[in-house]
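Handout, section B. The chain below has 132 residues.
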Amino acid sequence: MHATGHFDVKVSPQTPDNPQAKASGLARLSLDKQFHGDLDATSQGEMLAAGDGSTSGAYVALETVSGKLHGRSGSFALVHRALMVAGTPREWTVVVVPGSGTGELVGLDGAMTITIADGRHDYDFSYTLPAH
């Protein structure tokens, strides 16, 4: 199955909360999203990033999505991983965390592609779900 739409995201820098986090030099950010389209949901998450964030670096993130996917209610977690080389994303993956689906989304599996153009974030979510 396929879900498409766009999302709004607020990314907020967080203060390292222990000496090891401060010493790592990694950026920690919170994520707050609102999905529109076939996925009508909100999500909250955490991101860790290294590099300058615009020309080179990497990030990993986890987020919990809660709402409706093609009318089926529940929640699930996504895990992100991406590299940035000379300003171009590489090896960008966003996948459903296995076993994280709840409610009518139990058994959800899939991967999301995110496209950013002119400040707009679009998603294309290929997924499978067991029959009702």
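Note. The chain has a mean pLDDT of 95. Compare this with the example in section A.
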